Each structure stands twice: as structure tokens, then as C-alpha cells.
Amino acid sequence: MFAEIFWTVAIGFVIVGVVGYFLSIYNGLVALKNNIARSWANIDVLLKQRHDELPKLVKTCEGYMRHEREVFDKLSEARGALAQAKTVAERAGAENQLSRALGQFFAVAENYPDLKANQSFLQLQSRITDIENQIADRREFYNDTVTTFNTRIQQIPDSVVADWLSFKPGQLFHVDEADRKDVEIQFTQGQPAGGKVA
Amino acid sequence: MIGPIDPRLPLAATVALAAGPVVFYRGFRHMNTCRLIENTPTARIRSMPMGLVEIDGEVVPRSAMVAPFSGQPCAYWEVDVAVRGRRGGWSVVHRNQSGQPFYLKDDTGQALVYPHGATGRIPHGTEETCLGLTLPDCYAHYLQEHPTALGPAYRLSMMRFRERKLEEGERVYVLGTAVPRAAEVVISEPLQATGTDDWRALRLHSLDTEVDAVVRRGSNQTTFIISQTSERDLVMALRWKALGMICGGPALALAALGYWLSALSLGRLR
Asked: What gap in Å lies between CA B93 and CA B105, rounded to an integer?
């Protein structure tokens, strides 16, 4: 009888250990999945801030850059595309488009000395550049979280729990081919305070 | 033939029987912490999200502070005092850590870290053993200011004093809860009354305005680690500890149970 008690307790520890181990894997995967959602939402917070700064930027600059309709249109188009985007891929594309449009906008603004001397413009430029840097950091953070999750659900023993719960790999935030290229700036001759961005 | 049994054995077996499941459970806690560290990517300070966050960077002191035993300037310290037991082992009778915040700076920004309640993992430190009756002044003064659980009885035995500290410029890894800066800056005010608010402290306080966020022990997520070892080494150490406890806890409990069952079956306790 004493031997039975001993072996019952020993088997009890093994069962609790195995169940505890798989519960710990399950909880870890759920936490990681929520971390992905949180990382994505944290990018959204900054996007909202950037979204709110853009009308101020346009308002400050339109008086100086009357002949740069194309740049304003691109900015407005990219902002609209971002508002419409739903999936990770669409959002990534729209965000890259807006970052590119902003880069071109600031590059063109370099040709307007009066605008460059405007304090509001300088503050907005600094604020938007700061937000852009933070967005880049958070994209990296998001990709790190997704990579950790994707690695975990493919490794044994986590893959057993992941298969059982039908966890799918997360989608990474990719940079467009266009963003890998250098921005080329060409100035049109005879235009004293303007530029064309190619 | 059954010989006389050591009267301490039943007591040790009872303690082991109770401690085994606790050790087993704590092993799982360590395993969860290990997973939490692995699952949390390192964030850059300027863009760190609020909530549980993992950052690393260089330590910058926020106020002029010295370590209690060595008297060397530092940003954070932790000490423990232990007395030697009858069997030659050390038992810790007092632990303390500095509550003063310090800055953590990386290439992108800086955070203010409130170390209160943190689990410190700082490997390098100073250690000194001396007789309680002839303590050097630094230890005697410290013990007068911070009475230990033993009271004046400590003077009758050998004592061990350990000190670990973080100095300016050292790299540390912090896993804690990030909260917005604004609500915390006011806490710096009482520091003016401590007498440390000299020109250096004033200069350091000026960095408060550049702080991106505050990192501290969270109310919901209580994991808060300040570590000088790398994340990889920390995870490895925690994994081995967890494994040891998950295997060791049941082994301890089963050994104690085995003792009790055999003692009962042989009728030794009658």
C-alpha cells in the first residue's frame, strides 16, 4: 500500500509537470500573439500622430510652395491610401508611399529659403522626422515580435501546441523595392525657387 | 536491526515534503519568466511602447550617490548581510537596494529607471567576511542605521558583507514596465531635501526633460529585472534554474515521502 502511495504521488508529479509544461507553452504562444497585435497597435498610435501633423504641414507650406501641386497631391493621395488600407500588406504599402511622399516633400521644401526660415515649418519638420524615426523603430519591433512568434510555432515542442490550436505564421512588414533606391533630385533650369523630384 | 534514528530526520523530511511542491511550482514560474524574456524583443528607448518593455543601454546616475560599504560613487547598489550558521553555511539576515532612480541611455534616447522592487542580476561585486565583534566602521555604521533581523546578536558570529553596484557608463539590460514620463517627474522634488541637490545633482536633474519614459515595476506585470549579464546568459541561467527546480522539487518531495512511508512501514516512529 505504501508503494502504491509513493508511485501515485510520483505519477501525479509527472502528469502535473507535463500538463504545466504544455500550459506554459500555450500561454507563451497566446502572449506572443497578443504582443503582435500590441506592436501593430503601437505603430497605429504613431501613424495617427503623423496623420494629425500632415494638415498642419500642408497649411504652413502651401503659401510658399504654390507651384508644387504635384507634391501636395502625392501627399494627399498617400494619406488617403493609408486611411483605406486594411491588411498588413496594404498598410505597409500605403505607409511606404506616405513616407516616400514626405521625403520628396521635404526635399522640395529645401529649395524655398523663406519656408526654411519659418519656425512653424521647422518645428513641424522636426516633429514629423521624429515620428518617422519612431515609426521605423516600431516596424522593426513589430518584425522582431512576428519573427519570434513564427520561429516558436515552427520549433518542437511549441509546434505541437501551435498545430493543435491552428496558429498561423504572422505577416512581416516588408519595405517596397522603391524604398531601397536612393532618392534622385533634379532641379529644372530657370526656376529660381522650385524643384522637381524624380 | 534498526538503530537509533537522528531526531532531526523526521523534521527535515517534513520540511522537504512541504518544500518539494513549492520548489516545483517556482520552477515553472522561472520557466515562464525565461519565456517572457525570450518573447519580448529589445526596444529602442525613443520609441519604446508603454507596458512591458525590454531595453538596454548605458547607466547614467541621476543623483550623487555612493555605495554604502565601498563608498564609491554609483548609480545603483544592492547589499546583503549574512551570518555564518553552525554548519558553516551562510544565512542572509538583511538585504537592501538603492531606491534612487537612474537614467538608461541608448543611441536613440534615455529612460528613467526606478529600481525599487527590481530583481538585480549584477555578477561583479565586493565581498568581505569579518568577525561581528570587530567590524570595520563602514559595516558597523551601516548596521546601526539598518538593524538586521538578528539584532545585536550578530556580533557573536562571523559576518559576510556583499555589495554589488552599477557605475556610470556600465551597460545593463532592463525588463520592466514602461509608463509615461509626465506623471513621474514630480517624484524628483523630495530629493532637494536629502542634501544631495548640489550643482552635480542639479545638472543631472536637467536630464529629466529629455527622458522618453519611465521604467519601473508594474502593478499587473510584476516582472522587473535589472541585469548586467546579457539576455542570452540570463535566459540560459534561468532555464537551468527552472529545470533544476522542476526536477529537484518532486525528487525532494518523493525522497521525503519515501522516508516517511518506510518509517511508517517499519514502525520506527512508534
From this structure: 35
User: By the CB < 8 Å criterion, does A28 face chain B?
Assistant: yes
Q: How many CA atoms lie within 13 A of B203 on its CB side?
A: 6
CA distance B109 to B212: 7
For B192-218, how does the pLDDT look when each residue is reduced to its tens digit (9 = 90+)? 445 555 555 565 666 677 788 899 898
Between CA A71 and CA A112 the distance in angstroms is 14
Instruction: Specify whether the CB–CB gap between B194 and B146 falls below 8 A.
Output: no
Indicate if B132 and B258 belong to the same structural domain: no
Q: Which residues pair with B104 in a beta bridge?
A: B59, B111
Could you count the other beta carbons within 10 Å of the beta carbon of residue A6?
A: 16
Q: For B89-105, what is each residue's pLDDT tens digit?
A: 888 888 888 888 899 99
Question: Which candidate, B54, B34, B52, places its Cα nearest to that of B42?
Answer: B54
Domain that includes residue B258, residue range: 10-39+230-265
Considering Cα of A159, then A164, then A165, then A169, what sign does the dihedral take?
A: positive
Residue B3 lies in a domain: no
Q: Could you tell me if B123 and B174 lie in one domain?
A: yes
ipTM above 0.85, yes or no: no
Inform me whether the pLDDT recorded for A187 exceeds 50: no
Q: Are residues B175 and B48 in the same domain?
A: yes
The residues with which B178 forms a beta bridge, in sequence order, are: B51, B215
- Give yes or no for a contact between A188 and A194, defined as CB atoms under 8 angstroms apart: yes
Best of B25, B47, B56 to disrupt the A interface (most A CBs within 10 Å) is B47
- Are residues B169 and B50 part of one domain? yes
Please tell me whether residue B185 adopts helix, strand or coil conformation: helix
Q: Which residues in chain A have Cβ-Cβ distances shorter than 8 Å to B43?
A: 137, 141
- B76/B115 Cα distance (integer angstroms): 8
User: CB within 8 A of A3, min separation 6: which ones?
Assistant: B261
Residue B73 has pLDDT above 80, yes or no: yes
Contact B35, A24 (CB under 8 A): yes
Helix axes A69-84, A88-109, angle to 10 degrees: 160
Helices (H), chain B: 8-39, 137-145, 199-205, 231-266
Distance, in Å, from the CA atom of B263 to the CA atom of B270, rounded to the nearest integer, reads 9
* Chain A residue with minimum CA distance to B109: A134
Which residue is listed with cell 555578477? B123
Contact across the interface for B24 and A38, Cβ inside 8 Å:
no
